[in-house]
Design brief:
By secondary structure, this protein is mainly β. The chain contains 8 helices and 79 strands.
């Protein structure tokens, strides 16, 4: 099906020597064609053969826009290492022996290809012919025999932009139908003949496209050279002067799990491609370039049936662990000789455990259980294995085989063969095990199918199981639907609010009056209102120059009051200024929409400056732009102040000093808001859409979309005063498990009570909706078990141990929302690609059991007790207090031992409150325990003396991530020094000098130089001997002794921190990075005019201090350059 290839640019040859300058007067299948009026030649030579499947060196070009590998004849060739979606491939190309080895790891499918130029060599059953002018084609071509298509012809659809199918109309024109198959279907959709295409030709001469409904007498033709908006048509070939030859080149604009995306054009890779016009909706040529609309996904018809593959020593080739050496007694891989597609048997641990015996007929595959019991059957991209079977015996005794997916097992002795078969699967890689002895296998047969059809079958089954519904149908709207926000009332009624985008874009990025519209469901989301209700309409009477907050509305977030289903709040953006253009004086507005009658009527008012003024003088500086994150407004389960449970919402800000994410809270259902934790803490510098959730002990997390990054981060807030919303934010930590997921989505975080299926343990589970891709596609969930308080006690713990769960969408998809429904399923709303309204998506809703989202691990259980989480939090805090006693203020930010007793007394109150829970009033008791925990935290954070920066003190700075690195300077720039440098070396000592603005300059003891402001990323930070040129910094320290040094005048607002990079330099980076955090350690040294002399550390412990007259002194009465007796020793200060 798929045509993989190796691209070769022929050096020293003119383009005219590659192909004729005509469309070709005769096709390779014998059908005569007239000479075309212009050239249809390509400019790339590809080494391959019709029907063979080769590992493509162009994947990097498709996905990452990198260059082609150039091969120069007669010389030793270059090695090209490519990385694609965490799949590593290595290619070595050589002449002399003229051998090419290509090892590919693709979805656990190891494939080996070796090729010799000048002679034909079969590896994996693939043939190689001499290179000529070629065309990329992700399909299996056919031929015409006796005026009919050859038996076994494979048919395909042409899908543009992943949303629209090309259809041959009765008059020969090419029309379009939405590619919505599977969205909400309950049965397999029909594919009419006029949607199906086949390809006749070859790489050298190009391909002719036939439509199944038109037969062999008409083909797809167009005038060459192509002109803007010109269309291709189905016309008779006889006597036709138009070009009927098409070439395909790799597209980097879209990705697909089923095929290699291509551009479709008449000429070469630089020619104009067919394009799905965003303006007219037609498929026509576009001379403005190539983009998503020019990308074609050539996918096999659903009805395609493929022959089973038999994998045995006569039909496959053995390869060793190095994926080069073949035909040895013991091997790691057995790879089919037949292509389209290639199937592989592999030892999953890379062991040479696969052998064979020629003494039997048919020959036997021997699979050993020594060293490794784990094996895989796999098929190349675009296909899946739907079943497999074999017969087997033990070698010297009984042996057992097990299919991992279905858990099916079978045992055979060494004398009596048993049959083993598995069906009902649809996997690209199928794991199985040989558990004992060795298995002697014969007749290994693998059933295969195109992945697109099998995935669609599964999607249709899911639609039935999950009651999939289209809430807003973008295909039936002239305006786009975007940004779903999902809410649920206490009776289980659902509300979804979305943007109705007349502009096709965010507010301020186009002229038009966007609305917010809403639909509801009363049956858990199975059906929705036929018509939407407009809850905020943009004022169409206002001119496009208007900056009023009522001009347009968008980006809704929603909550329905836990205690009153009539009370609904929607927060949104208003006006006609974009987030990035917003300024405090002319901002993007904050709007509150409120309904007190269950959504029947709505009021609206602007809270713009109420919100902006919360961070007008924050640690990030003055706020120029902000917007409250779309999706869910989190309403507390546990905190209720007055008539309402507390509300939380996160929002990104563009600030003058440091872009940041903040969290606000409201105790009057959104009428007034306060900043959680205050303005001098930055929960995150991710500065993009973020979501809030409440943890079992009552602490608060924010899930952060990091701007300009592929990572997802988590920050943690611990209360010190619940009523006032005071407390401490912990530095954001990124979840490494999600680093390969695109972060260009808002995501949703949801914590639910659950029971572990394997052992019945009750606990909580966190769900994070995000993509399963590096693009805006294939949304799903990751999940994390919250088995105890320790699993989320720090931001680092919170970011760890996430697992990939269910993928909900198979195609382009973006923003999401989740709710625990009243029927104990997870309501999952999401955007999915669709034609229609400009810039919009279909808004889809599913009801998915937690068990399905978490790979079968958990089910909902409302009887989970959160009391143990509060108890564990108290115990952990008590342990930390003990640690602080021992450390006794070693680093800036840490507490000194004196005063920790009061913290322990507050912790005793936690135990007392929890003890009352057993006697009734459980939730009230738990809240009192939360308050006691907050009091203990407050005592620790504000009632205990903590080590601060002192004037005149010298410090050593050790990096948090690189514990062997200290900050130093060579007098020109800041450098990374060694932690082994003696404390007596002034090159590693720094002093912080307070400025009139209340910030710090950073001075080095040896060179008498100051750190300048941070520069652009990857640029070493400079120093200066002119104090007036010194950079001003703020220093933010945690109680655990980690500090970041943030420039107040950074070259890039998003990268203000002093950071130790992996190249040995000190550069600017984000404050949240571990390598941007430092342990600032007070030292026993003081600078005089001519030397650094010994002085006692007086701030961290009590000392007995006397002058030379024997008078007892306090530390505050000491004079510089004095000699004193400290703890019985004479010292110079």
């Amino acid at each position: 099906m798929y045509k993989h290839f190796i691209a070769i640019v022929l050096c020293g040859l003119t383009t005219t020597s590659w192909a004729s300058n005509t469309c070709s007067s005769r096709m390779s299948d014998g059908v005569a064609l007239p000479t075309a009026v212009s050239s249809c030649k390509p400019q790339l030579a590809l080494l391959s053969r019709k029907g063979d499947v080769w590992s493509s060196l162009l994947d990097a070009q498709r996905r990452r826009g990198r260059t082609w590998t150039r091969i120069v004849t007669g010389e030793r060739m270059m090695t090209n290492n490519q990385r694609l979606y965490a799949d590593y491939r290595q290619t070595q190309i050589m002449t002399g022996e003229c051998k090419m080895a290509n090892g590919l790891l693709l979805h656990a499918n190891y494939r080996q290809t070796q090729m010799m130029m000048g002679e034909r060599m079969r590896t994996n059953g693939l043939s190689v012919q001499g290179a000529g002018a070629t065309s990329l084609h992700p399909f299996v071509p056919t031929t015409i025999v006796g005026g009919d298509f050859a038996e076994g012809t494979r048919w395909y659809t042409l899908k543009f932009k992943n949303t629209t199918l090309a259809v041959a109309a009765a008059d020969g024109s090419i029309s379009e139908v939405p590619a919505t198959a599977g969205n909400v279907d309950r049965t397999m959709p029909q594919q009419l003949d006029n949607q199906l295409w086949c390809f006749v030709g070859n790489e050298q001469e190009g391909y002719t496209l036939y439509n199944k409904a038109f037969g062999t007498t008409k083909a797809l033709v167009a005038v060459a050279p192509a002109t803007n908006t010109a269309e291709a048509t189905m016309e008779p070939l006889e006597g036709n002067t138009k070009c009927a030859k098409w070439w395909f080149s790799a597209s980097s604009n879209l990705s697909s799990a089923f095929t290699d995306p291509v551009y479709m054009q008449l000429r070469d890779a630089n020619g104009y491609a067919l394009n799905l016009s965003g303006q007219s909706g037609q498929i026509c040529f576009w001379t403005g370039g190539k983009d998503n609309g020019s990308t074609v996904l050539i996918e096999p018809a659903f009805a395609t049936v493929l022959e089973a593959r038999v994998l045995d020593p006569d039909n496959a080739t053995f390869y060793r662990q190095d994926r080069k050496t073949k035909g040895q007694a013991w091997n790691t891989y057995l790879i089919s000789n037949a292509g389209d597609p290639v199937v592989t048997l592999a030892n999953a641990n890379g062991k040479n455990n696969i052998g064979y015996s020629s003494a039997t007929s048919p020959k036997t595959i021997i699979i050993s259980s020594k060293n490794s019991q784990n094996y895989t059957l796999s098929v190349e991209k675009g296909y899946v294995i739907t079943g497999y079977s074999f017969s087997f015996k033990g070698e010297t005794a009984s042996t057992t085989v097990k299919d991992v997916t279905t858990a099916k097992t079978e045992t055979a002795t060494n004398t009596a063969a048993k049959s083993f078969s598995v069906d009902g699967i649809a996997l690209q890689s199928v794991p199985f095990q040989v558990l004992t002895d060795a298995a002697h296998i014969q007749q290994l047969t693998i059933q295969i199918a195109p992945a697109v059809g099998e995935v669609l079958k599964k999607q249709i089954a899911d639609n039935e199981k999950y009651q999939t519904a289209i809430v807003f149908d973008n295909t039936k709207s002239p305006f786009g639907y975007r940004i779903p926000a999902l809410g649920q009332d206490g009776n289980g009624r659902l509300f979804v609010a979305v943007d109705l985008r007349r502009t096709g874009s965010d507010i301020g990025m186009g002229n038009g009056h966007n609305d917010i519209v809403m639909k509801t469901s009363s049956d858990h989301g199975a059906t929705w209102d036929a018509n939407y209700r407009t809850i905020a309409a943009g004022d169409a009477q206002q001119d496009h120059s208007s900056k009023q907050w009522t001009y347009s509305f968008g980006d809704p977030s929603i909550v329905v009051d836990r205690n009153n289903p009539q009370n609904i709040l929607v927060m949104c953006v208003g006006g006609h200024t974009s987030f990035f253009d917003s300024r405090y004086e002319q901002p993007q507005h904050v709007v509150r929409l409120h309904s007190s009658d269950g959504g029947e009527t709505w009021t609206k008012d602007s809270l713009t400056y109420q919100i902006y003024n919360l961070t007008k003088n924050s640690l990030g500086g003055k706020t120029n732009g902000l917007f409250l994150t779309s999706g869910k407004i989190m309403q507390s389960r546990y905190v209720k102040q007055g008539a309402y449970n507390r509300l939380y919402i996160a929002y990104p800000t563009n600030n003058t000093k440091q872009n940041a994410t903040f969290v606000i809270f409201s105790d009057d259902f959104g009428a007034t808001w306060k900043l959680l934790g205050g303005p001098m803490q930055l929960p995150s510098t991710g500065a993009d859409e973020s979501k809030v959730e409440e943890l079992p002990d009552g602490s608060v997390l924010v899930s952060v979309r990091n701007r300009g990054s592929s990572s997802r981060g988590y920050s943690l807030f611990t209360y010190t005063d619940i009523a006032k919303g005071e407390g401490r934010w912990e530095f954001q930590t990124n979840a490494e498990a999600m680093n390969n997921a695109v972060n260009a989505v808002n995501g949703e975080i949801l914590i639910v009570p659950a029971r572990r299926v394997s052992d019945g343990r009750k606990l909580f589970v966190a769900l994070q909706s995000i993509t399963h891709s590096t693009a805006r596609e294939r949304v799903g969930v990751y999940f994390k078990e919250l088995a105890n308080y320790e699993s989320y006690a720090t931001a680092t713990a919170l970011a760890a141990d996430w697992h990939k769960g269910k993928q909900v969408s198979q195609i382009g998809s973006c923003y999401t929302g989740m709710e625990l429904l009243s029927n104990d399923k997870i309501g999952y709303v999401y955007e999915e690609e669709a034609t229609g309204g400009i810039g919009g998506y279909n808004i889809i809703f599913k009801q998915i059991p937690l068990e399905d989202l978490t790979n079968g691990r958990y089910v909902i259980d409302h009887t989970v007790d959160r009391g143990p989480y509060i108890q564990q939090a108290a115990e952990m805090l008590r342990s930390r207090v003990h640690t602080y006693r021992v450390a006794n203020g070693k680093y800036v930010g840490m507490p000194v031992a004196a005063g920790l007793t009061g913290v322990e007394a507050s912790l005793d109150g936690v135990g007392a409150a929890l003890a009352t829970a057993a006697t009734g009033g459980e939730e009230t008791a738990y809240f009192h325990a939360q308050e006691a925990m907050a009091a203990a935290q407050k005592q620790l954070l504000s009632g205990v003396t903590r080590v601060k920066i002192e004037r005149g003190r010298w410090y050593r700075l050790t990096n948090n991530l690189k514990r062997n690195v200290v900050l130093t300077t060579d007098g020109t720039q800041l450098k990374q020094g060694s932690v082994s440098t003696p404390l007596t070396d002034p090159s590693v000592l720094f002093q912080f000098i307070e400025t009139t603005e209340g910030y710090w300059t950073i001075k080095n003891a040896k060179h008498k130089v100051f750190a300048k402001a941070t520069l652009r990323t990857n640029t070493p930070l400079l120093v200066t001997d002119n104090k007036a040129d010194a950079g001003q910094y703020t220093i933010v320290s945690t109680i655990d002794g980690r500090s970041y040094l943030q420039s107040m005048d950074p070259a890039q607002a998003a990268y203000p921190a002093i950071h130790a990079d992996n190249n040995g330099n000190i550069v600017a980076w984000t404050t949240i990075s571990d390598a941007s955090q430092w342990f600032i350690e007070p030292t026993d040294y003081h600078e005089t005019d001519d030397a650094i002399r010994l002085a006692p550390v007086l701030s961290t412990a009590p000392h007995a201090i006397y002058n030379l007259h024997g008078q007892r002194l306090s530390p505050h009465s000491l004079q510089h350059r004095g000699v004193y007796i400290v703890d019985g020793k004479k010292v110079v200060y």
